Fold this protein.
Amino acid sequence: MSARDKFTGVNSITFNKRFKDDADCYEYLSLIKWENGFICRKCNYAKYYKGKKPFSRRCSRCKYDESLTANTMFNKLKFSLLIAFHIAFKISTKKKEMSSLELLIVR
Ligand SMILES: [Zn+2]
């Protein structure tokens, strides 16, 4: 077993503790997606209120409702976000040069 394998092992334990269910994943994705604040994609307005879906944000000017997964690699996911996070994590530990942000947000 190489040092890198051990490091990956420790990371998976941390990862599994951090993400126990979908809610943990949604919360994390929300932090990353809007880490610089909300900017409406339609009208560039920065104020929002809670959207229809859990964690979605609705522009308070044009009423555009952006779901949490829109414009991320998790858009229109057919399975649980937790499973998707596990897949993303596996890929990210293989590709060290890919940042978590690059992995989660498709620009
Ligand atoms: Zn707007």
The radius of gyration is 16 Å. The beta strands are 48-50, 57-59, 65-66.
